[in-house]
Write a structure and sequence with these properties.
This protein is mainly α. The chain is built from four helices and three strands. 72% of the residues lie in helices and 10% in strands. A hairpin with a 4-residue loop joins strand 2 and strand 3.
Length: 196
């Protein structure tokens, strides 16, 4: 058994030398072969010694180590999540401002949600690039057709001008002939009048 000397009278007797109160712990056993009681007593502060200080120090150091490890893990995880999102955001910003390079793609690693986002972003950029190539081809075709149409219009205009010149020439010829026929008719009429 053991006994804790917290009784004020006993504690005063045991702590004669020190004015400061100290708690003493006592343990005893009965030793039957010799019919003795063996006991030992010790001040509680001596019993624990620096253990409490060491335990508190160990707990504080352990907590600091755990916090440091958690901060490192959170930092690593946040960088692995945030970095690809920031890259995608930067590419979208470049594209929206007209400075984007549509040949660049996001690096995709793994099968997590961020990787799926990267794959879909790359697919989106592929579609935009394909649309731009089609528009470029159509623009080239429209330019070619426009140039061809311009040449055909110019040729048609030249043909129309030639036709107008021909019509004017025919008109002038007809006027001349009409004048000649009129002169001839007048001459014939005078000849008929003179014959009579």
């Amino acid at each position: 058994g053991s006994y804790n000397f917290t009784n004020p009278l006993l504690s005063k007797l045991l702590n004669k030398k020190n004015e400061q109160k100290r708690v003493k712990v006592m343990a005893y056993r009965y030793f039957k072969p010799m019919d003795w009681y063996i006991s030992i007593s010790m001040y509680l502060s001596d019993f624990y010694g620096g253990i409490v200080t060491k335990i508190v120090t160990w707990v504080v150091v352990s907590i600091l180590i755990i916090i440091s490890v958690v901060v490192l893990i959170v930092t690593f995880i946040s960088k692995s999540i945030v970095k690809p999102i920031l890259r995608a955001s930067d590419m979208i910003l470049d594209i929206s401002q007209g400075n984007g390079d549509l040949t660049k793609r996001l690096k995709v690693r793994g099968k997590d949600e961020i990787s799926v986002l990267g794959e879909r972003f790359n697919h989106f950029i592929d579609n935009i690039q394909e649309i731009i190539f089609k528009v470029k081809d159509l623009t080239f075709d429209v330019t070619e057709n426009s140039n061809s149409l311009k040449i055909q219009i110019k040729q048609s205009s030249n043909v129309m001008n030639n036709m107008l010149d021909g019509i004017k020439s025919i008109d002038n010829s007809m006027r001349s002939q009409n004048s000649a026929v009129s002169d001839t008719s007048t001459t014939v009429t005078e000849m008929i009048n003179n014959i009579d």
